[in-house]
Amino acid sequence: MQRNAPRAPRSLSALAGCLLLPLLAAPALAQGGGRLVDCRVESEGKVVVSGKCRFVPEAGGSFTLENRDAKRPLYGEILMVTVSIVSPGNAEVRGLTRQGINSRWGEARRSNQDRACWEGSDFKICAVASAAQSGGRLVHCRVESAGKVEVNGRCRFTAEAGGSFTLENAEPKKPLYGSILTVTVSVVSPGNAEVRGLTRQGINSRWGEARRSNQDRACWEGSDFKICAR
């Protein structure tokens, strides 16, 4: 199957279905969120992407890979590739083209050899978290998890759209702490956020919901964690 030039649908109804699919099953191209990671995409035995790309996390561990440049496709005619988790270790993969066709690549399983990779019958998709990016600014951070202070000192604060932000180690190529490379606070409504921690293995683990503290507006508090940046 040639993924760079998908076959045209056989009927108008099929075409309509394909045009609607991107609205239902894929995010819009580069919304300004996400973060840069090291990507590798193989298709039909050929490496089509190898380098930095934008990783956009979604619910349940699903994610989308886009070109780091919002105005360019991921590769060829493919604007983005989405890995949608359907059950632990199993996913459906689709590629959205310039023509708006959300083509199904097929089922994929998480690799046992490299947990940052998903493998299908004739494709492989890997997204490995990059250490601290060159952007952002240094702030004082405090991260508490399960009653333990994990971070208390300088870290890199990268602002994102809508008041969301990501915390990384102030020193490039080091994790924020332990196996956690970054912690992201994604604001979903005023005073409410979703928090995730990206690991060295590329796993974007969900920490849970958080509310902005009334006592200290620089802090966000979850059921068993607290994140402050000032």
Entry keywords:
1 helix; 2 domains; elongated; eight-stranded antiparallel beta barrel; mainly beta; eight-stranded antiparallel β-barrel
Give a short overview.
With 230 residues, the chain is mainly beta. The chain has one helix spanning 12-25, and strands spanning 35-43, 46-57, 63-66, 78-87, 90-97, 102-110, 117-119, 123-129, 137-145, 148-159, 165-169, 180-189, 192-199, 204-212, 219-221, 225-229.
Question: What would you say this structure looks like, in words?
Answer:
This protein has two domains: 12-129, no CATH class; 137-229, no CATH class. 6% of the residues lie in helices and 53% in strands. The protein has one helix at residues 12-25; strands at 35-43, 46-57, 63-66, 78-87, 90-97, 102-110, 117-119, 123-129, 137-145, 148-159, 165-169, 180-189, 192-199, 204-212, 219-221, 225-229. The strands form two sheets. The chain has an eight-stranded antiparallel beta barrel. The chain has an eight-stranded antiparallel β-barrel with strand order 9-10-11-12-13-14-15-16. A hairpin with a 3-residue loop joins strand 15 and strand 16. The model is unreliable at 5-32 (pLDDT under 50).
Topology:
Layout: H1 12-25, E1 35-43, E2 46-57, E3 63-66, E4 78-87, E5 90-97, E6 102-110, E7 117-119, E8 123-129, E9 137-145, E10 148-159, E11 165-169, E12 180-189, E13 192-199, E14 204-212, E15 219-221, E16 225-229
Antiparallel strand pairs: 1-2, 1-8, 2-3, 3-4, 4-5, 5-6, 6-7, 7-8, 9-10, 9-16, 10-11, 11-12, 12-13, 13-14, 14-15, 15-16
